[in-house]
Every structure is written in C-alpha cells, then in structure tokens.
Design a protein that fits this description.
The complex is a heterodimer. By secondary structure, chain A is mostly helical. Chain A has three helices and no strands. Chain A is rod-shaped and about 55 Å long. Chain B has a five-stranded mixed beta barrel with strand order 1-2-3-5-4. Chain B has a five-stranded parallel β-sheet with strand order 7-6-8-9-10. The longest helix of chain B has 95 residues. The radius of gyration of chain B is 64 Å and the shape is rod-shaped. Classes of the chains: A mainly alpha, B alpha/beta. At the A-B interface, helix 1, helix 2 and helix 3 of A face helix 8 of B.
Chain lengths: 66, 419
C-alpha cells in the first residue's frame, strides 16, 4: 500500500471504479473494492495537498551534494 | 650607424597621416550602408566596437574600429531594441550606415549614424531556423514533447536566476494557490541572459539529470519583463539538451510575438513564469476535481450495486416459489410414475409365478398313481408292498392287483426267472 505513486494510485482507482460499475462486480467484492478505492482516494488527496517532509529534507540536502 | 639613410627624403608621421586623411576625404566614403559583425562592443556614453567580417571557416577577413556618438547612440539603440527585442552585442550581424573617418591620433574608424534592424532580425531568424532544421534532421526535435507531464506535476526543478523577479513570482504563485496544492520547487541557478546563458542552463540540466527521480518536470524561467537578450536561448547545444532531457521541460522565458528555438523543443512552452505556475496549479486542481468525481462515482456505484442486489433478491423470491412448486409437482409425477411401474412389475411377477405353479400342479397331477392307473397301468402288491421283481415271490403267493377302479386278488401259479 505504501510507496504507491500518484499515477499508480489513480490508475488503480480508475480500474476499481470500472469494475464496480460492471455487471461482473459481486456483492462479496463490493465491500473490498469500496474500502480499497477510498484508501486510494485518500492517498491521492494526501499526495496533492499534504507536505511530504521526506522529500523536503532530500531537496534541502541537494545543494550540499552537488 | 646607417647615417646614409637620414639623407633620404622623408616626411613626418603627422605629415603622412595628413596625406591619408586627405585621401580618405577625397575617397568620399560617407553614408555608406555596410554589413558586418559586431565584436568588442562597449557601451559607455559613446558606443565603441570593432566591426569584423568572417569567411566560411570563421577566419576574420576584414576588421575596422567603429563608434556611435552618444547623441546618435540613444536613438539607434532604442530603434534597434524596439524592432529586434535585443541590445547591440558581440556576435550580432548588423547593417549600419556610416562614414569612414580618419583621425591623426586614433587612425581609421567607421562612424555609425544609422542602423537597419530588419537585417539583424533576418539573420537571427535564419540562425533560429538553421537550429530548428538541424534538430529536425537529427530526429530529436519532438523528443521532449513525447514525454508526458504527470497528472500531478508537484515537484519542479527550476532553472532560473535566484534574484530574478520571474522566479520569485513563480514560487509565490505556487505557494499561494487557493486549492492548497503542495508544490516542491528547487532552484538550479543559471544565467538567464548574456553569453553564459546556454552554458549555465546546460550545466543546471546536467545536475538535474542526476536526480530525475526527485522531480516531475523542469521549468526554465526567465525573470523580469524585459524582452531583450532573448536569443541567447536560441542556441543549438541548449536546444539539443532540452530536447533530449528525460523529464518534460516547461519554458517560461517571456516571449511575446517571437517564438524561440526552446519553444520548439520544450514539452510545454508557456509565455511567462506565472503562466508556468498557473499551468501546474490548474493541472493539479483538475486532479483534485477528478478525485471528487471519483469519490461520487464510488459511492454511486456501491449504491447501484446494492440496489441491483436487492432488486435481484426481490425477483428471486417468486422465482424460488415457482421453482419449488414445479419441483414438487415434478417429484410427485415421478413418484406416481414409479409406483405405477412398481405395481405393473409386481402384477406381472405374480402372474408369472402363478402360471408356473399351475404348470407344476399339472405335472404333479400327471405323475400321481391315480393318474397312472387311469391310463391303464396297474399296481401289484404282496402283503401291502409293491412288487417290482418276480424273484421276491413264489408260486402259491397271493397277490393283490390294484386297477383304476377296483382290486384283483390272485394266486401266483408260476414266475419267470430273470436271467
């Protein structure tokens, strides 16, 4: 679950939504798919709006290394 | 030494220069239009430079000092800047009007009084087109454009000058976006004008290329609002580096009508640094909206699926009842058929057994002594025992013969011996 890139997460979201909308989606899967998609949504939102402190730290050290 | 030489007729240097000056004046080299390349340009109150001409191998084949006096220089520089967007500088091809003058101390010089900017423009355009054609011929002009900008370009390697207004505007614009998208910028400083432009930008690109995993794109931003010095960006090596760069490059180097070589090769050519910031923000906001839509879709899909399931269940009950009833009636029919079959089999079994019993009774009847006697056979007994062998009796014995009807009592006269 961790270390998904935004593009990976959004691609998986697209696939899940397509699955949920298809006739093949069973009630048994529904719960799992909904949970997973909400998790992915959260990851994407976080990536867009929350601070990635790890990245900030790395960027700070860039000048020193080059 | 060489005492004799002093006896030869000679003139002083000033006398010589006077002759040259006279010759120059007589040659009437005034108000001539000349094409040349500028070198050693210096812009103080008066402008000084050396005009040169090079052959195809870039060897200088002609050279002359030149100047523009201050009062003329103000007008010419302004006219030139307005037309070309550039200041006069080294390496520039110009068409100028002027007169050859000779000064006894400073020598020959070309005094410039007018300039034709369209010649320079044409030359700049020609150079630009040459670069573009070369990149096309090498098949790399669209290489950077083929690299997609990620849906969320939040990590930006900025190539600009730290002091440039454009760079500050860009960072402010990103930081203050109303959707609270988080952006990460890192500045890789480079000269954004002058002779070092291409070299320092290429160096910055090289540095960034060691950290491509940390960034989504590169933004080349030129600060300030001035339209001068733009064609420092029209450089083959720089264009080639941008074209071949592994991350999408966004340019915001402030072109207006003119489109520079970098705009032909960069993945996203945009006019100004703030326009670059807007592009990045819009793209991420689009993603935020996209996520909201997806959230709605997820909820709707789940509801729809549940609704369909309930509907299905609702339809299932009557269907199940129907199936149950038809199953029951099937089973009943099957039972009926089976019981009929069983009774048929039993009947036929009984009939078969009874006819077999009848046959047996018939046989028994045929074999009974009564039935044998009735067919004409008789039974001979002595002392109540059946006689089957004549050796058991002797003449004089009394025997009893039983017929079907009645009994005979006889005396034996003779027996035949068995041999």
């Amino acid at each position: 679950m961790k270390d998904l890139t935004y593009t990976e997460a959004i691609t998986e979201l697209d696939e899940i939504i397509e699955k949920m909308q298809s006739e093949e989606c069973s009630i048994d899967n529904l719960n799992e798919l909904t949970e997973r998609s909400l998790k992915l949504l959260k990851i994407c939102r976080t990536k867009l709006t929350a601070t990635d402190e790890k990245l900030q730290e790395i960027l700070k050290t860039l000048d020193a290394n080059d | 030494m060489n005492f004799q030489q002093s006896l030869l007729p000679s003139i002083t240097l000033s006398e010589l220069n006077l002759k040259v000056k006279k010759a120059v004046v007589e040659a009437d080299l005034a108000y001539l239009w000349v094409t040349a390349e500028i070198s050693d340009f210096s812009d103080r109150r008066h402008c000084y430079m050396t005009l040169i001409e090079k052959d195809e191998s870039c060897n200088t084949i002609a050279s002359m000092r030149a100047n523009i006096w201050a009062n003329v220089a103000i007008k010419l520089k302004s006219k030139f800047l307005k037309a070309t967007g550039k200041n006069l500088e080294d390496g520039m091809k110009v068409m100028i009007c002027g007169s050859v003058t000779f000064h006894e101390v400073y020598g020959i010089s070309f005094n410039i009084t007018d300039i034709e900017p369209s010649y320079t423009l044409g030359d700049m355009e020609r150079q630009k087109q040459e670069i573009i054609q070369r990149l096309k011929a090498e098949g790399i002009i669209d290489r950077n454009k083929e690299i997609p900008l990620p849906p969320n370009p939040q990590r930006i390697a900025v190539i600009s000058s730290a002091t440039a207004d454009g760079y500050k505007d860009f960072v402010n614009q990103l930081d203050e976006n109303r959707s609270h998208i988080k952006f990460y910028t890192h500045l890789f400083p480079a000269a954004m004008q002058g002779v070092d432009t291409a070299r320092t930008i290429i160096a910055a690109l090289n540095t960034i290329s060691r950290h491509t995993d940390l960034f989504d794109c590169v933004a080349i931003l030129r600060g300030g609002g001035s339209q001068t010095d733009l064609n420092w960006f029209d450089n083959y090596e720089l264009a080639r580096n941008v074209a071949l760069f592994p991350l999408p490059v966004i340019t915001g180097i402030g072109h207006q009508a003119d489109v520079g070589v970098l705009d032909y090769v960069a993945a996203c050519p945009v006019k100004t640094p703030t326009a670059v910031a807007d592009l990045l923000i819009e793209r991420c906001v689009e993603q935020l909206n996209n996520l909201n839509e997806m959230a709605d879709e997820i909820v709707n899909s789940a509801h729809n699926r549940m609704y369909r399931a309930k509907l299905h269940l609702g339809n299932l009950l009557p269907a199940m009842q129907h199936a149950l009833m038809s199953r029951l009636s099937n089973e009943r029919n099957k039972l009926d058929r089976t019981s009929l079959q069983i009774s048929n089999i039993a009947n036929s079994l009984i009939a078969r057994e009874s006819s077999r019993l009848d046959n047996l009774a018939d046989k028994q009847r045929l074999l009974s002594p009564q039935s044998v006697l009735s067919r004409g056979y008789s039974l001979t007994l002595i002392n109540g025992r059946v006689i089957t062998d004549t050796r058991k009796i002797k003449p004089g014995d009394t025997i009893t013969t039983r017929l079907k009807e009645g009994t005979l009592i006889s005396t034996v006269e003779q027996t035949d011996d068995h041999k």
